[in-house]
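sorry for the late reply, my laptop died twice this morning and i had to redo everyting from scratch. anyway the thing you sent over, i finally got around to it. pasting the sequence first so we're on the same page, its 224 residues, then the predicted structure underneath. double check i copied it right bc i was rushing
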Amino acid sequence: MARMSEEFVSADPLQMAALAAVGQFSIASLHALKNEVFAATGTVEVLRRQADPKSPLAQRLGQIEASGRDTEIALRLLLDLAASLNHVAVRFPLAEAAEQACALLAHSSYRGRVEKGERSGARIEAPRALIVLSLLHLLANAVEAAPLATLSLGSDDESVWARVSNPGLLPAAPAPFRTEKTRLAAVGLGLPFVRAAAAACNAHFTLRQQDEQVEAELRFPALG
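ok and here's the structure:
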């Protein structure tokens, strides 16, 4: 897909320097933590393989190993978010980020299909990579819960939004780092990333039940 020119917006140099410093510190800290978790999970895996497969110890070690793998994925998502703090905000059509997210999903292991609903050419102001990743997480979450998801874009005088919906039921108290692979809507690792990304972009993220559909929405301030 052809990439349109980006219009860079002015930013306070001190604020950008502070964000860059936070990003670098977060990346270093998260890398160190990820390495420790990876090493611990590997040790647990070795112990599990040495134990009697039918023993309670092996079962418990398997649970700890699975939890460690989930934690590794969560840390990778946080690393993506920390890296995005170093990206300068630009003005671009939200539809471009949506198309890029759909293309990334199509080349992933997810088998679900995304149907494009309402479209809008409205522009937003944010780090492009952060928005693409956020939409990708929402789409992956949706197609994991149901074979078909719908991506709609819209705008009015006050805001610009992207809405991902899929058939399903929203759990009453979703676990933040565990994906439910049942008929319920998938509520997994991507949602904490999207919430943090929305806050970083002065946007609002909502997840709600709408009749028999689960809707996840990113809403950005309209540009003047």
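Residues 1-11, 174-188 have pLDDT under 50 and may be disordered.
thats about all i looked at so far, will dig more tmrw
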